[in-house]
Amino acid sequence: MEDLLKLNETLDDLQNGYYIIQKKEGFRFGVDAVLLSDFAALKKTDNVLEMGTGTGIISILLHAKKNPKKITAIEIQEDMAEMAHRSIIYNKLEDYITVLPMDLKDAPKKLGKGVFNAVVTNPPYMKLGCGIINPSEKQAISRFEVGCSLEDVLDSSYEVLMPGGKLFMVHRADRLVDIIFNMRMRKIEPKRIRFVHSSINKKPHLLLIEGMKGGRPELKFMEPLYIYDENGDYTQEIHNIYGRMK
Q1: 202-227: burial string, b at 16+ Cβ within 10 Å, e else
Q2: What's the whole-model pTM score?
Q3: What are the chain's domains?
C-alpha cells in the first residue's frame, strides 16, 4: 500500500481506524471539516453527495461517524480528486465512497436530479474581490469563489436533492445574510444553525447550517460552539467531537 503515497505527501492517522493522504505543503484539512462531519445528521440508509471533497477528509469522517449507505464525493481539481481516491483505496472504502473529478455545477446532469438524500459541503468561503487572492491556484480554488460561487453550490444542491432532502454546510459567519437569502431563493429552507466561536469572548467566525429542500419555515438556533476555553485549551465539547472518532 506504500505505493499509494507520492513525493511531498504525508499519510496522517485520523485516530479512528482510517488515514488521510495530504500534501506536505498546500491545502490540509482543518477543524471546520471535523465540525461539519459531526453536525451533518445522516441516516444509515442515506445516499450522500459531498461537493468539493478536496482531500476526501469529510467523506471519510462521515463514513466513520455516521456510516451512510453510500457517499459520492466530487472535486473539480483532478489531482486532488486522484489523491482523495488513493485515500479511499488505502482505507479499503471503495464499496462506500466514490470519488469523481467533476465540477459541482455538472452534478445534476451527470449524477441525476432528485437522487440524493443529503448534500454535505465545505465550499470556498471568500467572494471574489474580497481579500487577497492566494498566489497558489489550487489554494485559491479552495478558499475563494473562483471555480464556483455560493449560488452555484445551492443551485446544484437543489437539483440533486430529493424532496425533503437535507443540505449540510459550513461557511463563514459573516456570509450569513447571503446564505439564508440564497437558500430561500432556491427553496432550500434553513432549518438548523449553529455559530462557531474561537473562544467565549470572540464573535463567531464560522457557522454550521442545515437546510431542507421544500421545507416549511422554521429555523432552530443551536447553542454556540466554542473551540477554546479561557485557558486556551480545547473545550470539552471539541474533545468530545474529536473523541467520537477514536
Answers
A1: eebebbbbbbbbebeeeeeeeeebbb
A2: 0.91
A3: 2-243 (3.40.50.150)
